[in-house]
Amino acid sequence: MEAVIFDVDGTLVDSVDRHAESWERAFARFGKDIPFAKLRSQIGKGGDQLMPVFLDAAELKRFGADIEAARGAIFKAESLHRVKGFPGCTALFEALRARGLRIALASSSKAAELEVYKQAAGVDGLTDVETSSDDADRSKPHPDIFAAALAKLDLPPGRAIVVGDTPYDAEAARKAGIAAIGVLCGGFPAEDMRAAGATRIYRDPEDLLAHIDEWAA
């Protein structure tokens, strides 16, 4: 293994609930009353994959883009600056780099949001490669974002591993041919991540660091 590819939302930063709240309010503006729990279960997907779960084709065409724009504005104004990183991210990244491993971030977020997340997690300056929604035509569970990270790393799938907090991360990694491990700090059930292909499950970045010899050898 030569590189570790990290999801960001729910994996390095505690943002899943805030994203779900932003989607809930954005849908409500267009008369769509969708329960928070149902929206939260879809976080990890980008808007291109999340909205079709709740809107039919006619609704997507009529106001899908407006809902996504509203979600982005709500999140930026009210939540982005409040996102906190999970403990241990800096030490984890430093330990991986000390082992000679390269680090990539693969997020469905916008590039500007990713910059804020890096600061919140304390990993700015500790990554080798970054991909955002700008680098992928389709978001997770499609493999595009992880394929883009591999391309930037110039590595075959067997030389990297993905770390993510949702079954969509594990599914996307599997489709890209990359092994995946899961973390529970995003609030998704371990059994769902295992069913999607995660080979190991850890609590959070601190737990990843505590067991680094198990998965980053």
Unreliable segments (pLDDT under 50, ≥5 consecutive)? none
- Rg for CA atoms: 17 Å
Number of strands: 6
Numbering strands along the chain, what is their spatial order in the largest sheet?
3-2-1-4-5-6
CATH superfamily of the largest domain: HAD superfamily/HAD-like
Strand content: 5-15%
Overall geometry:
globular
Number of domains: 2
**Mean of residue pLDDT values:** 95
The CATH architecture of the largest domain would be: 3-Layer(aba) Sandwich
Structural category is alpha/beta
Number of helices: 11
CATH class of the largest domain: Alpha Beta
> How would a crystallographer describe the biggest sheet?
6 strands, parallel
**Oligomeric state of the chains present here:** single chain
Helix content: 40-55%
H-E string: EHHHHHEHEHEHEHEHH
User: In CATH terms, what is the fold-level topology of the largest domain?
Assistant: Rossmann fold
* Distance N to C terminus: 8 Å
Keywords: Hydrolase
Protein name: HAD family hydrolase
GO molecular function, one term: phosphoglycolate phosphatase activity
Pfam family, one: Hydrolase
